[in-house]
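Give me the fold.
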Amino acid sequence: GRVQLRLKIEPGRVTGQWRLKDADAWSDAGPCPFEVEGSRRFGLLTQNGSAGEVRWVRFDQFALTDLTKSP
């Protein structure tokens, strides 16, 4: 299946969010502190599952969007 992911950036923190369909509301996966100064980098970590099982994930339709300018 597919899942939509986004990182919501607010002063002092970033929150990972997810939803299954465009019509669904965003659900929080969890926040963490976010320092605005210096260079910033983001990563998407995919893990969990059985140790002996091959696990792959594919990301597509990746975009950086300023949500404050959304209609």
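The mean pLDDT is 80.
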